[in-house]
């Protein structure tokens, strides 16, 4: 039935009878959709998906013409040559031949292009050596050393970074954006989901076309599970289904040269991904909780050049005490510790003057200590002279006594099981 309706739709379409072609296309799409739901053979499923997307696009184009008061059925067949009608450009628009509707979609996607480098270097990413190596192979080498990729050797085209929340998946993507000499598109579900029927898949199509036009380029999709959950779920919307179908088609790259377009995606819930989408990612890398050495490095990176008196042994001890902490947990911990000297300064009752004329909180028995509060010093116009003390090991002890890791053992088990079945260690 789907084949019969689609054949009739194409026939009416070629004859320019758009008002007749549109309902036939919609009927065919309904049959294709049902077939997709129950078809088990992946090759047949893929072929149906391609046809579904092709007819869906065409139906939307015809509907746009009919909505704009297009000619409708043409009796003399003159419209047969116009197999891809477009909306007429408004005055002053589309002078260069670009469809104004497409120009509007692209303008919306322009905000997704990262124009300023995030300034996160490879060395700032603690651990994850094999993940960094794989990304360098895919991102840096093809641009700097194109001669490496000859014959059958091709760079990786799609990476999925998965793991518990806060392990540095998005941070790794920022490092890629900094280090890669490529156009970087950072996409979230809100960039691609539209309330208008048929616009979401056009946004996906335009995104990939923009990436091809400005290659070499990287498309980073954060929280991809929000766009590409399992098909056939009860809460799946029609728009969500169409976005997934379009994404599958674009990632397949049929009829396009996508050698210089890399898709990088991140998710905390890899099991929630649609199987067909998951298969499109030729590299699926597990980003685990940081190991001891990585945690030690993270404490140093997050402290940066803030004055402190911690030794190397102190950093090692902190790393041992934070087993099970994610990178995000350590970041929150250090952020809290950074405020401890400020809290001490606010609560201080005694201050001492340093050789360079600054006022630092101190104990009552310290030589040269003056009994005065921060508020009193500020009232005397000395606010700019007050300096918090350096961070100490005790500050970390105080914060760690009240902080707990946010990733549960059951979360880790799920990710480790997924890695055994589908992924690889990062």
Write the layout of secondary structure elements.
Elements: H1 2-14, H2 18-38, H3 42-67, H4 100-110, E1 113-114, H5 129-144, E2 158-162, H6 169-179, E3 183-187, H7 189-192, H8 199-213, E4 217-221, H9 238-252, E5 261-267, H10 275-280, E6 283-286, H11 292-303, H12 312-321, H13 327-338, H14 340-347, E7 350-353, E8 359-361, E9 370-371, H15 374-379, H16 393-400, H17 409-421, E10 424-425
Parallel strand pairs: 2-5, 2-6, 3-4, 4-5, 6-10
Antiparallel strand pairs: 1-3, 7-8, 7-9
Helix pairs in contact: 1-2, 2-3, 3-9, 4-8, 8-9, 11-12, 11-13, 13-16
Descriptive terms for the model:
single chain; 426 residues; alpha/beta; seven-stranded mixed beta sheet; 17 helices
Task: Write a brief structural summary.
The chain is α/β, with parallel strands linked by helices and 426 residues long.
Describe this protein's structure:
The longest helix is centred in the N-terminal third of the chain and has 26 residues, at 42-67. By secondary structure, the protein is α/β, with parallel strands linked by helices. The protein has a seven-stranded mixed beta sheet, with helices on both faces. The model is unreliable at 71-97 (pLDDT under 50). The protein has helices at residues 2-14, 18-38, 42-67, 100-110, 129-144, 169-179, 189-192, 199-213, 238-252, 275-280, 292-303, 312-321, 327-338, 340-347, 374-379, 393-400, 409-421; strands spanning 113-114, 158-162, 183-187, 217-221, 261-267, 283-286, 350-353, 359-361, 370-371, 424-425. 49% of the residues lie in helices and 9% in strands. Keywords: ATP-binding, Membrane, Nucleotide-binding. Residues 3-72 form the MIT domain. It comes from Citrullus colocynthis.
